[in-house]
Amino acid sequence: MLSCDICGETVTSEPDMKAHLLIVHMENEVICPFCKLSGMNYDEMCFHIETAHFEQNELERSFARINTIQYRTSDNRKDNTLQCRMEVNSSVHSAGASNHPKILAQSLPNDGTLKQKAFYSENLTEARKFLKSKEKECDLSKIKGSIYKTMYSPPECPFCGRIEDCSQDMENHVKTKHANLLDTPSEVHACSLSTPTWPHKNEPWAQNTSLSRDHDQPLYDCPMCGLICTNYHILQEHVDLHLEESSFGQGIDRVQCSRDLELAHQLQQEEDRKRRSEESQQEMGEFQKLQRQYGLDNSGGYKQQQLRNMEIEVNRGRMHPSEFHRRKADMMESLAIGIDDGKTKTSGIIEALYRYYQNAATEVRRVWLSTEVDHFHSSFGDKGWGCGYRNFQMLLSSLLRNDAYDDCLKGMSIPCIPKIQSMIEDAWKEGFDPQGASQLNNRLQGTKAWIGACEVYTLLTSLRVKCHIVDFHKSTGPLGTHPRLFEWILNYYSSEREGSPKVVCTSKPPIYLQHQGHSRTVVGIEERKNRTLCLLIFDPGCPSREMQKLLKQDMEASNLKQLRKFVGNLKHKQYQIVAVEGVLSSEEKVARRQASQVFTAEKIP
Fold first, then answer.
1. 313 and 229 co-located in one domain
2. In which band, very low, low, confident or very high, does the pLDDT at 67 lie, cut at 50, 70 and 90?
3. Residues 6 or more apart from 291 whose CB is under 8 A from it?
4. 598 with 529, same domain?
């Protein structure tokens, strides 16, 4: 459907529109379609309609299309003409509508059809500013619909961009300021701003208008959409619109990309915070687990655990209340004097082993035993964490029987576990092993903290007992075994293997043996007839009733199973031993205290 820009009447085709324009508006007098007023030119009639009949005009043409631009080009470049058809909703005009009349340039092609052409610069931004200013001047606050917002701009000079109030002023401006750019004064310019004149198709000059233009004026192709323009200023403005549109789209893409990047960054930060929180909680849980495992969770020490476990035994009916109170009294007395009550001690085992190897053990070629040593096992108070203290008691029980250590251990008895903790703290205060003290918070009393080879070495050195640590830090045999450990212990106990008796009771103290999670005491070594080696080990985890079976006169080989450890039985990743070598002088003690600032050990291999 096509709508007449003069009277608003709609027709179905372009020939009908042509006939309508020729009959109604060209051959006849211009008459107002609402009040039948006549006797005026086209511009005056437009002003009359849009001021006197604003409401009727708006109702009749409120649905007209706006900004519809059609372009058509022919195969022959000389016949190419810019075909622009713009239907403007003329219902939206303020009281100053005469300031922006329709700007049209029309021509009649060779095929005899009527085409309406509009060449003008449409700047929507300036149009909106113009409408807002006119709305304020005329107080047309009610005209704010969607049709009002789409009104085209006032006439703009295609050469210099100047904007005039009406087409007549713009035409005068172009003729005076840009006369040199016009081909001929009578030519209908591609951007003609005068009132349209509709030539009759039979007039020869009208039929040759576009052809004359093609011959006299160059054409310019838009490099972006292929539109053909007759003036390079119009082409430049047209291309600028393309670039602005492209820039606007790219700006939107950049904004969207920036928002997406910001959102991704926020999500990543939240994920990192969540991950760090989970890792922190996991680390805290593992740390607390290690604290409980190594007795650093402030849950009490030897005394508290002893009382708690005895109460459990009473509640389960395994201990009589009178026995509970008797043991509690004995414990309090032992803690008061700092001496072990001996309830977990088993003595005489080395002597019993000597008798057994003399009379039996035909599979054994030779055996070397340490000096006499007592076995101590864990009690209610230190079960699960006291192995290091119990092995120190075994080692000390052997040293106290050796006259060579009377000078440094004179007057000592086997201390209880809280007393051993106090002795290690005193050694730290003297300056021994500051790094180890720091790891245990410089405190052992009242805790269930584990001790290892370093703490036993520190305590023995503070008592002037000469010893050293040997670190078997990795496997030296197949399947994770440590044959070098067995060889070292054999060399420690034996001075000459050839020509010696089957059973040798040496003057060497037992060896403190530490590995991950547990410690034991080596009291001898066997060399079997097949040349394999077997260690004899006291384990503080073995109860007294089992150790006392070794004291029987008719001891069997099966009773030694809990003592014997072959090469294939020791497969922990790392082993450390503390071997006693003699007595330190005061000067040597000071030197070793200084050396313990950075703890070192002999490594094998």
1. no
2. very low
3. 297
4. yes
- Reading the block at residue 211, the tokens are 């052809």
Instruction: Average the pLDDT over each of 7-11, 29-33, 319-323 and give the range with the smallest value.
Output: 29-33
How far apart CA 255 and CA 266 sit, in angstroms, is 16
- Domain membership flag for residue 553: yes
| Cα–Cα distance measured from residue 548 to residue 550, given in angstroms and rounded to the nearest whole number | 5
pLDDT per residue as tens digits for the range 445-478: 999 999 999 999 999 999 999 999 999 999 999 9
What single string gives the DSSP state of each residue in 125-171? HHHHHHHHHHHHHHT-TT--SHHHHTPPPPPB-TTT--B-SSHHHHH
- The last residue of a domain, from among 337, 368, 390: 337
Whether 271 is covered by a domain: the verdict is: no
φ and ψ of 368, to 5 deg? -120, 130
Do residues 443 and 497 both lie within one domain? yes
Query: Are 323 and 464 within one domain?
Result: no
Report d(CA 404, CA 395) in Å as an integer: 14
pLDDT of 440 > 80? The answer is yes
Whole-number Å distance between alpha carbons of 366 and 505: 11
More confident: 380 or 64:
380
Over pLDDT 90: what percentage of the chain? Answer: 48
Query: In which residue are the tokens 């602005």 written?
Result: 244
Cis peptide preceding 605, ω within 30 of 0: yes
In this structure, the answer to whether residues 333 and 405 fall within a common structural domain is no
DSSP 519-578: EEEEEEEEEETTS-EEEEEE-TTS-HHHHGGGGSTT--GGGGGGTEEEGGG---S-EEEE
* Same domain (yes/no): 303, 408: no
Residues 6 and 31 both lie in one domain? yes
Q: Which domain holds residue 376?
A: 342-603
The reply to whether 520 falls in a domain is: yes
Residue 99 has pLDDT above 50, yes or no: no
pLDDT of res. 17: 81
| Structural domain contains residue 235 | yes
Q: Report the catalytic residues.
A: 387, 518, 539
Q: Are residues 498 and 587 in the same domain?
A: yes
Greater pLDDT, 426 or 125: 426
Distance separating alpha carbons of residues 67 and 69, to the nearest angstrom: 6
pTM score of the predicted model: 0.58
CA pair distance 341, 333, nearest whole angstrom: 9
Indicate if the alpha-carbon torsion angle 442, 448, 450, 451 is positive or negative: positive
Dump the DSSP string for 230-256.
SSHHHHHHHHHHHHHHHHHHHHHHHHH
